[in-house]
Amino acid sequence: MNASTEYWKSFTYRDLSYVFKNLKTKRCMKFVFFLVCCVISVSMNAQMRKVVFICEHGAAKSVIAADYFNKQAKQRSIPFEAVCRATAPDSTLNSATRAGLKRDNIKPNLSPKKISPGDTVNAERIILFTPLPTDFRTAVKTEDWSTLKNIDVDYTRRRNAIIEQINMLLDELEKQ
Q: What residues form DSSP beta bridges with 123?
């Protein structure tokens, strides 16, 4: 055994107590704790990149896309997460979307939220099912999915069209 191993082996509760007693205040401990939390938060955010799906009401297309993107990214171990946002959010999800996701055993996002500049932090891509508001500026790459075949029909065909695009997007993101 080397000297450092011997030292740590003999380190006792009394030694630890001495270290904490000699910290000047609880404020110092709180500050250290805060710094550790910040480092953990930054490292987690740096690892998990984001895709933002935006539709007009945030009640159907973007919800389906974000939920299926997250499900498939997790299955494929791709370090991305998706969020859904709206340009003019409804108060609740579309009932057909809620029922369809429930049949698919997917718990949908709870309520539509309006897009904000903070939503694009760590975003790799913004997928649009509707145009962005004219006053919304971003440097993030955008893709227009508003013209997908079967996008404005029943839930099943809408879902299938979105999943097909998601698979292509995940293939592309996986190569990065």
A: 50
Domains of the chain: 3-43 (no CATH), 48-175 (3.40.50.2300)
Task: Per-residue pLDDT tens, the chain, 176 aa: give them.
Answer: 455 445 545 555 565 566 556 655 566 566 566 655 555 555 554 457 999 999 999 999 999 999 999 999 999 999 999 999 999 999 999 899 999 999 999 887 678 899 999 998 889 999 999 999 988 989 999 999 999 888 888 899 999 999 999 999 999 999 88
Give me 29's structure tokens.
Answer: 């401990």
Helix ranges (H only) for the chain are 3-9, 13-21, 26-47, 61-75, 95-103, 155-175
- Strand 49-55 to 123-128 pairing: parallel
